[in-house]
Amino acid sequence: MGWFWADKRSNDIASFQDIPSINKKSGSVADESDVGRCPVMAGKSKVDVEKSPFNPLNNMPELSQTSQHGQKTILPKERTVSSIPKGSSNEFWEYPSPQQMYNAMIRKGKIDPNTGEEIPEDAVESMVNVHNFLNEGCWQEILDWEKPYTEKSKIEPKLLKFTGRPDKLSPRARWNYLMGKLFPETYHGELPFDRHDWVVLRSNPEGKKEVRYVLDFYGGPDDANGLPTFNVDVRPALDSYENCRDRFIRYTSPIMDEYFSKK
């Protein structure tokens, strides 16, 4: 999830109107102690970044549109432009084409190019649609968190950079998993199947500010039609005073509103 490419070939912005918000996992506020810089750039000098085959904005290599040897299905190479503005320009992020997604999954070992096992070729287009839908929903959640600042600055935030961190459990995900073992009726007790860190460029009177968000992706139960559902826990990382304050207000406001309404 969360694969974007930084180049852009079209100025046509796809319409994502009426997309419902992604369901958010509930749970207690836990300490987000991972306060290092964005992992995309952490520990790398300028020379290392310039020599790296990975795009520093998304920590991903540039994947070709070339069909794989033995590939039986002709996958589309057209890419959809998202509704998510880039922090580095006035353009919008693009999603990968089905062919790029297929190549990426082979590189990650999710597909055997000789047999096509695990993920069928004809399922890739549907996966791209789900991927795009999820990312649009995540951006809507971020816009909701950013709303108080946007109302003051009158400037919409932008997505500056991001990276996948599937092997790095967030403290909150670890906490919910532990509490789920102790109190299964209150906590979901599942581990996320993926995690991303998105760095948002926020405008304020002092200028631009980088704000890191943590996104934990969970698989949900199938819906009434047997289709899979997903839950995404989106919140600002606890690496600044503002982020701590925003999370405290967000999670305590419903409790305080209910308490005072009964008086």
UniProtKB/TrEMBL annotation:
One of its GO terms (molecular function) is metal ion binding. It is found in: Mitochondrion inner membrane. The keyword Membrane applies. Its EC number is 4.4.1.17. It is an enzyme of class 4 (lyase). It comes from the Eukaryota. Pfam families: Cyto_heme_lyase. PROSITE patterns: CYTO_HEME_LYASE_1, CYTO_HEME_LYASE_2. The keyword Signal does not apply. Keywords: Heme, Iron, Lyase, Membrane, Metal-binding, Mitochondrion, Mitochondrion inner membrane. It catalyses: holo-[cytochrome c] = apo-[cytochrome c] + heme b. One of its GO terms (cellular component) is mitochondrial intermembrane space. Transmembrane segments: none annotated. InterPro entries: Holocyt_c/c1_synthase (IPR000511). Belongs to the cytochrome c-type heme lyase family. PANTHER family: CYTOCHROME C1 HEME LYASE, HOLOCYTOCHROME-C SYNTHASE. Lyase that catalyzes the covalent linking of the heme group to the cytochrome C apoprotein to produce the mature functional cytochrome. This is Holocytochrome c-type synthase. It comes from Candida glabrata. The lineage of its organism: Eukaryota, Fungi, Dikarya, Ascomycota, Saccharomycotina.
